[in-house]
Write a structure and sequence with these properties.
The protein has 2 domains: 118 residues, Rossmann fold (3-Layer(aba) Sandwich); 68 residues, Winged helix-like DNA-binding domain superfamily/Winged helix DNA-binding domain (Arc Repressor Mutant, subunit A, Orthogonal Bundle), CATH 1.10.10.10. A 5-stranded parallel beta sheet has the order 2-1-3-4-5, with helices on both faces. By secondary structure, the protein is of the alpha/beta class. The longest helix has 15 residues. The radius of gyration is 17 Å and the shape is globular. Pfam families: GerE, Response_reg.
């Protein structure tokens, strides 16, 4: 007997999570749905549900910092396709999402039937975009290289890098993660080595290249 498909819905807006849930249930009969409201929550869900068939990811969620969450999820869980769901509908944002490994891009303005169509196609192994993005420039090679390096971080190193981009000091990060300051210093050293940079400031600047301007409208 075929097992029910499993979809992780990651969005910090309860109303939009409910809308996505409705679209998923409409397109995937008997689906099992796992909900997450932050990047750390979706990371935990992906680790716990490694057999998931799809992740629907809002790139403006707490902790997401633009495309960094997408890049990290694709690196840690390459077998789970990701559809980016966003209020940012500019063609260059869609192109960057696909370049960073997304299997689809759904604008938050899309009607339920369109969202359901996108989900169905991606679950069938296809890609889906609301419109053509030909003519949009490819990512610079250095951005691909940085994304590959970012994907090589461990989950804890990624959390530390995220906190560095928020301007937290080592002792503040240690407090938040309930570990020693020496442990954080070791993580920072490993992060700098993996990212090929020489200072915290360079690491933060590099990570900010993955940023996305906040969407103009929210649900």
């Amino acid at each position: 007997m075929q097992l029910a498909q499993k979809v992780i819905i990651a969005d910090d807006h309860p109303l939009f999570r409910a809308a996505l849930k409705q679209a998923v249930m409409q397109s995937v009969p008997g689906v099992e749905i796992v909900e997450a409201d932050s990047l750390s929550a979706v990371q935990g869900a992906a680790e716990q549900h490694a057999d998931a068939d799809l992740i629907l990811l809002d790139i403006h969620m707490p902790g997401a910092h633009g495309f960094s969450g997408l890049v990290f999820l694709r690196g840690q869980h390459p077998s789970i396709p990701v559809i980016v769901v966003s209020g940012s509908e500019e063609p260059h944002v869609m192109k960057r999402a696909m370049d960073y490994g997304a299997s689809g891009f759904i604008p938050k303005s899309a009607p339920l039937e369109v969202i359901a169509e996108a989900i169905t196609l991606v679950l069938q192994g296809e890609e889906w975009l609301p419109h053509d993005v030909e003519g949009v420039e490819d990512l610079p090679e250095e951005d691909y290289q940085f994304a590959s390096a970012l994907a090589s971080l461990t989950p804890q190193q990624f959390r530390v890098l995220t906190m560095l981009t928020e301007g937290l000091l080592n002792k503040q990060i240690a407090y938040e993660l309930n570990v020693s300051e020496a442990t954080i210093k070791a993580h920072v050293t490993a992060i700098l080595r993996k990212l090929g940079v020489h200072s915290r400031t360079q690491a933060v600047i590099a990570a900010q290249r993955l940023g996305v301007e906040p969407a103009k409208t929210e649900l």
